[in-house]
TrEMBL record:
UniProt cofactor(s): Mg(2+)
NCBIfam families according to UniProt: GGDEF
Protein name, entry field: diguanylate cyclase
Taxonomy of the source species: Bacteria, Pseudomonadati, Pseudomonadota, Gammaproteobacteria, Oceanospirillales
An example molecular function term from Gene Ontology annotations: diguanylate cyclase activity
One Pfam entry name: PAS
Catalysis: reaction(s): 2 GTP = 3',3'-c-di-GMP + 2 diphosphate
Listed GO biological process terms: regulation of DNA-templated transcription
Record-linked Gene3D superfamilies: 3.30.70.270, PAS domain
Record-linked CDD domains: GGDEF
Organism whose genome encodes this protein: Halomonas lysinitropha
Documented EC number(s): 2.7.7.65
EC supergroup of this enzyme: transferase
Span of domain GGDEF: 406-538
């Protein structure tokens, strides 16, 4: 360790002339305060100063680059530990660049802090002005520039590369994946330059860098060398990766959907469709093949899938003009399917950027709904309309009679002594009787008549457009058909009869209940008169 006691202060101890007579530049630098503390005459020339006092007074921190500052900060603890650092530093005396081999060692200053004693051993190269500028550019560029020999051993690096990797760093050690580095070294034997994006090691941390590699020859030895330029692209790469992930997530969601999706841009070109869309319209090409297609043409060529082809196309145009979200349009297809279509315009920052169409096949859902409606209005034993359905239809007919001058009649049919059939032959045989009666009504009435099972063994028939006299004749015919029918039972075939009450629906009927009460009264009259007969009330 050098100290003030082992190297005397030149001014204080009168050794100044001796140090000044040396051809070797010597100076003492205060790293912390970024000031020169002493420089001999040879050093003054190097620093472009007239006198030692002027150099000591000079504000060096204002001209010091960040890279230099960083390099010196690294020196400080090493010097304090007694290390002697041999490195080259560049100086620019009188417009010439000199690379000086500097031997730096610890120097204890007056106040006890660590200073740096520098001995300039030998200067190596001097450069012309343009090389000097190039060197200066390299010194200041944030791009990391490193030079390796043909085997990947580091020769030199600029301050930015030095700051990124403090220790010695071979070509392989710069890369996170050594296999990548080795592959690149091999490729460089055949390729003069390579550009890539790679994960690099930067002070033990992984960063994405854009890396440019090129082959060159060492101007001093003529041997091959590799020049590597790198800059950090981690923020962009992180964003790109995040975008890729969300794009993939979206694709997974879109592909997993049952609904057919079609995304168009504002000029009606397809941006994206999914497989479900292709399936709905029997498109054999893969979804990617449709990208860029004109949607107007696509709509024209698929309009014949729909029962109303022109309506299908016209509605699309309408929605595009409105540019309002439309939850669902029902589209009936010629093959019996039903599609539900929804439209969503895409606005980004209040600007229109196209639209999304979603098509869902709702055929099964529609059939199921129709089935539920049918079940809710049908008697399960006979398949005839049930009481609820009877009431709805009877009300509609009564309204038509009242408002439209339509005439109508109503039959109430009740099986005679049905309890006895159940009691003697069993409930299952009784059911057969109910089904026979239902079939007799179903197959012997007009399509416009509505037979219903309104209770256990009670049936009604609404007969629009019929007078009670006409209905009476039909009732007698039905009655005879039922009486003549034979039911094949387990033990013995059996017959049964019915009693029928007939009434007309008149405009003066206040409600349908009034009409059914009259039919009921007529039916009970038939029962009282001996059953197996028709009675009329109006
Ligand atoms: N098998 C069968 N019987 C039913 C059903 N619904 C009602 N019944 C029966 O129908 C019978 C009706 O009996 P009642 O109302 O006493 O009249 P009835 O024996 O037909 O005598 P009248 O109407 O006076 O001629 C009862 O025994 C009920 O159990 C059904 O779904 N299946």
């Amino acid at each position: 360790m050098t100290s003030l006691h082992s190297i005397p202060q030149p001014a204080a101890h009168g050794h100044e002339p001796l140090l000044d007579r040396l051809q070797t530049p010597v100076w003492i630098f205060d790293i912390e305060q970024e000031r020169m503390r002493y420089a001999n005459t040879a050093a003054l020339r190097l620093w472009g100063a007239e006198t030692s006092q002027e150099l000591v007074a000079r504000d060096l921190s204002s001209t010091m680059s960040e890279a230099t500052r960083q390099r010196l900060a690294d020196y400080l603890p090493r010097l304090a530990k007694g290390e002697v650092i041999d490195e080259h530093w560049s100086f620019y005396p009188g417009g010439q660049a000199i690379s000086l081999h500097c031997r730096c060692s610890h120097y204890v200053m007056n106040d006890g802090r660590t200073g740096m004693l520098v001995e300039g051993l030998e200067s190596e190269i001097s450069l012309d002005a343009s090389s000097l500028r190039a060197l200066e550019a390299l010194r200041h560029t944030p791009m990391m520039v490193s030079v390796f020999d043909g085997q990947g051993r580091q020769l030199v690096r600029n301050p930015a590369a030095l700051a990124a990797r403090r220790g010695q760093s071979s070509f392989e050690a710069c890369f996170s994946d050594r296999d990548v580095a080795e592959g690149l070294l091999q490729r460089l034997e055949g390729e003069p330059r390579i550009s890539l994006e790679a994960i690099m090691q930067v002070d033990g941390v992984e960063r994405w860098h854009h890396v440019d590699l090129c082959r060159a020859n060492d101007p001093k030895t003529g041997r091959p060398m590799i020049v590597m330029g790198e800059f950090d692209i981690t923020p962009r790469k992180t964003l790109e990766i995040a975008q890729l992930v969300s794009k993939r997530q979206l694709e997974v969601v879109i592909e997993g959907l049952d609904a057919g999706l079609l995304l168009e841009d504002e000029s009606r070109r397809i941006i994206m469709v999914n497989q479900a869309f292709c399936d709905l319209f029997a498109i054999e090409a893969p979804p990617e093949a449709l990208v860029g297609m004109d949607c107007r043409e696509a709509a024209q060529s698929s309009k014949d899938f729909f029962i109303e082809p022109e309506g299908f196309v016209a509605r699309i145009e309408e929605l595009l003009v409105e540019q309002r979200k439309q939850a669902c349009d029902l589209l009936a297809m010629t093959d019996g399917r039903f599609l539900e279509r929804s439209y969503t315009p895409l606005f980004v920052a209040e600007e229109y950027h196209g639209h999304l169409w979603i098509y869902r096949d709702i055929t099964r859902q529609r059939r199921q709904e129709a089935d539920w409606v049918r079940k809710a209005s049908t008697d399960p034993l006979t398949g005839l309309a049930n009481r609820r359905s009877f009431e709805d239809s009877a009300k509609r007919v009564a309204t038509a009679v009242k408002e439209g001058g339509l005439q109508a009649a109503l039959l109430m049919i009740d099986i005679d002594r049905f309890k006895a059939i159940n009691d003697t032959l069993g409930h299952a045989e009784g059911d057969k009787g109910l089904r026979l009666l239902a079939d007799t009504l179903r197959y012997n009435l007009r399509d416009s008549d509505l037979p219903c099972r309104t209770g256990g063994e009670e049936f009604m028939v609404i007969m629009p457009g019929m007078t009670h006299e006409e209905a009476q004749a039909i009732a007698w015919r039905l009655l005879r058909q039922i009486a003549e029918a034979t039911i094949e039972a387990e033990e013995l075939p059996f017959h049964f009869t019915v009693s029928i009450g007939v009434t007309g629906v008149t405009p003066s009927d206040a409600s349908i209940e009034a009409v059914t009460q009259r039919a009921d009264a007529a039916m009970y009259q038939a029962k009282h008169e001996g059953r197996n007969r028709v009675a009329v009330r109006w």
